[in-house]
Design goal:
Helix 15 crosses helix 16. This protein is an alpha/beta fold. Helix content is 33%, strand content 20%. The strands form four sheets. It has an eight-stranded mixed β-sheet with strand order 15-16-22-17-18-19-21-20, with helices on both faces. A six-stranded parallel β-sheet has the order 7-8-6-9-10-11. Helix 2 links the parallel strand 2 and strand 3.
Length: 504
């Protein structure tokens, strides 16, 4: 391929026909390229052939990329994938969809170039991107959230509405395949161990995340030990504590920007707690790179409410609040979620993917009034709780055909297992297991709520009344051992929690 962009006479192979494939194919056709989309799944090939007329569809397995001028890969393709290795061996360039979108945008092929504001980090990306979009829109800018948040960037730049500012959430995979991107401003919120099987090492993972900081303004999370060591040509930081000169932070109960101007009260941020505050500060810093003021950011953040499965309150039953943070799929995310509350009945478990749960348990032990565990790695979490939080009551819930219980488990289904945990077995699918999990969590929470009511008040003694506990789904683990997605897991939790309020 000659030049920065594919065009008439350019043969392009799009590897992967999933979420980004149709958008990439449509953009390439608009540029005049000849497009072949290859996917290993017959249903995916049929779907994209129906959605995008004018392309050639092929089976990816064994497909030879050497005859093409360019290969565009979906974000999940590893550098070791056969199609990537074969393309590079043949001297064929390999782009990701974000790299292609950047080149199209910089060339002005789909209108004047936009301002890109890039958000990445191990946790908090989507909430920050949603906050950023809300701030930009409240300020009257033509803006749209895109990237890893759901809408492909290449689709956003081709939108007839012609957004002028892009709030771009990018994963480490997308950043790896987008080496040319130089955003107006970019943030790395935090960096914790994740996807190391894909990147090969923590250093490689961090390096890909740091690509978000290669533009005009680099914004970094100062409270994170890895992100705080990164930076760019012009770097600003944010902290949930007292800020230094030029930093974003919290002063006198208010979020403040780099000039010390108040944004909004910390108590007004949703989701509550340090993670929500950090996300709000990061979103404000990015928005101010395109001229948004602190009051405009504050107005938007005051009205912002977190999306589904991200520290979302889903029910309040008999004085107990139930919170769905199913998106907390690793220990780092679960830590942020738990630290937003003083007393927690923790619902956790699933696929830990090799992550060490012990540091999390040690950090939050004093906040836990109970833990209810499910999923393939529940025993590992139970063992860590037994070692580092031995006074916390633990219930492990599993499925099995030998015991039948109602959604509210009965004593016949319960037994004391290893590490002193109570084992509950349920006959049924993943939704039935979650119903039993929520029932067990409610037992613990309501007992703890009684303790709260019985505690001396500040008026009658030196001890203040204990805060009410919350039941928090913050699994610290992936969901696919039991559920179709983290969304399915969160929906099951929410439905079970709401059902408690209708039970007689």
């Amino acid at each position: 391929m000659t030049g920065a962009l594919p065009g008439p006479g350019t043969a392009v192979l799009v590897a992967g026909g999933g979420v980004t494939g149709p958008a990439v194919a449509r953009a390439l056709l608009r540029l005049g390229a000849t497009v072949t989309v290859a996917d290993g799944k017959p249903e995916a090939r049929a779907k994209i052939a129906a959605e995008v007329p004018g392309i050639v569809v092929a089976d990816l397995d064994g497909h030879d990329p050497s005859g093409y001028d360019l290969v565009v890969v979906a974000p999940g393709f590893r550098p070791t994938a056969p199609v990537v290795v074969a393309a590079e061996a043949a001297g064929v360039p390999v782009f990701g969809d974000v790299e292609l979108a950047w080149r199209i945008d910089r060339a002005g092929a789909f209108g004047a170039p936009r301002d890109w504001l890039v958000v990445t980090g191990t946790n908090g990306k989507t909430t920050t991107t949603q906050m950023l979009e809300s701030i930009l829109l409240r300020a009257g800018l033509r803006a749209v959230a895109c990237g890893n948040i759901g809408r492909p960037v290449i689709d956003a730049i081709g939108d007839p509405a012609d957004p002028r500012v892009l709030a771009v959430e990018l994963s480490s995979f997308q950043l790896h395949w987008a080496p040319s991107v130089r955003p107006r401003a970019g943030v790395v919120l935090n960096v914790a161990e994740d996807h190391l099987d894909w990147h090969g090492s923590m250093a490689a993972y961090t390096a890909d995340k740091a690509r978000a900081l290669s533009g005009e303004l680099a914004v970094i999370g100062l409270d994170d030990p890895v992100a705080s060591r990164l930076g760019g040509t012009v770097t600003v930081g944010f902290t949930t504590g007292e800020p230094g000169p030029g930093q974003y932070g919290v002063r006198g109960g208010d979020l403040v920007d780099g000039a010390g101007l108040a944004i909004l009260p910390a108590a007004s941020v949703s989701p509550p707690g340090p993670a929500g505050i950090a996300d709000a500060l990061a979103a404000t810093a990015l928005a101010q790179a395109v001229g948004v003021t602190a009051p405009q950011a504050g107005e938007a953040l005051a009205a912002f409410r977190v999306g589904a499965h991200r520290a979302e309150p889903v029910a309040q039953v008999r004085g107990v609040t139930y919170i769905d943070d199913s998106k907390a799929t690793n220990p780092h995310a679960a830590l942020n979620s738990i630290e937003a509350h003083e007393r927690v009945v923790w619902v956790a478990g699933g696929q830990l993917k090799g992550a060490d749960i012990a540091p999390l348990v040690q950090r939050v032990a004093s906040r836990l009034v109970g833990a209810v565990l499910l999923g393939v790695d529940r025993d590992e979490i139970a063992g860590s709780l037994a070692r580092h939080a031995p006074d916390v009551p633990v219930v492990r819930v599993s499925s099995g055909d030998d015991v039948r219980v109602s959604p509210v488990t009965n004593d016949a289904s319960r037994s004391v297992g290893t590490s002193g945990a109570v084992d509950v077995r349920v006959s049924g699918d993943a939704d039935a297991v979650m119903a039993a999990v929520v029932a067990e969590a409610s037992r613990i929470a309501e007992a703890a709520l009684d303790d709260s009511a019985a505690a001396p008040s500040a008026a009658s003694g030196p001890l203040a009344a204990l805060p009410a506990p919350v039941v928090l789904l913050a699994p610290a683990a992936a969901s696919l051992d039991m559920f179709t997605s983290y969304g399915h897991r969160g929906d099951a939790f929410a439905a079970s929690a709401r059902a408690l309020g209708t039970a007689s």
